[in-house]
Amino acid sequence: MHNLTFEKGLRPSTDQLAMQLEALMVAGNLRGMATVRDSGYRGYLRDSVQALLRNSGRVAIVSGFPVGERFETDGPAGAIALANGLQRLGAEVALVGAERYAKALRAALPAAIANGEQLADCVVPIDKGQCEAQLRTFVSDFQPTLVIFIEVPGVGRDGTHRNMRFEDISAQTLTWELLLQQVICPTLAIGDGGNELGMGLVATHLQQLPVACASASTDHLVLADVSNWGAYTLLALASACVGRPLLTGFELATCLNALVDAGFVDGVTQCAAATEDGLPLVRSESFIAGLQALAAPIIAECQASDLFAADSFAMEYA
Predict the structure, then answer these.
(1) With a threshold of 0.90, does the pTM exceed it?
(2) Domain limits, the chain
(3) Rounded to whole angstroms, how far apart are CA atoms 37 and 230?
(4) What is the pLDDT at residue 166?
(5) Binning pLDDT at 50, 70 and 90, where does residue 1 land?
(6) DSSP letter at 220?
(7) Structural fold of domain 12-317
(8) How far is CA 39 from the centre of its chain?
């Protein structure tokens, strides 16, 4: 039986890939995440993928960052990619979000990805007025083994949720810290700017940046130039661990266009465009292609040696 952790004696190439991908995720330093990493917060990608693989039985994926009455494309695309990849590992997934977000996501999913109809049935809407009770019921019924927050507003020390423009968006979002308080499983957050839930883990590193820092911490935190990119990178490194390409079936342009058709907008430009955080689509597609190219040799190595066969994975983490 083989262990799917990053054992240096067994898989030095995977260890090296983890650091390579981690640096790539923040290479643009668009909102200071490379600065945070360089100030001492390193190795988070490796640790986060370990947590993902060890706890992938029932995964709740929470997302939805409001832009006025609509929501960003950054977050849901990553959530869809994660749900697709985790299902390929045999995980049960739930896509959790505020009621309006969940309705739009459910409408987008059939056109966003091949298994979108199936994923639409995994969407869990949460009503703002009944948030705490509905989250308690969800945790009791679903019993998550891992919760992932991707691009979710977090409460700051002043008690408000703020966007990148420092505007108070508390009325448009839910207090997802309530879910954080109710679960006993590991938690993982993905963020790109400091105001997302989970960023409390690097609060001291964020003091030097002009950001509205969220207070709550998660067990693991992935920093990226774009939150969606953090999701894609998690899947690329996980692919290298299990010897299977977990991004297969996810096409970014298709996904983003479906989200825009359902009412999502770019969070930076606030335009109904198939882009992530104001970046050209080709840049995001090139980023994903780069991840896949870096991971491909190690995936091939795994497949050739059969060290990380799917049945070994199931036995190890059952």
Answers:
(1) yes
(2) 12-317
(3) 14
(4) 85
(5) very low
(6) E
(7) inorganic pyrophosphatase (n-terminal core) (3.90.1640)
(8) 23
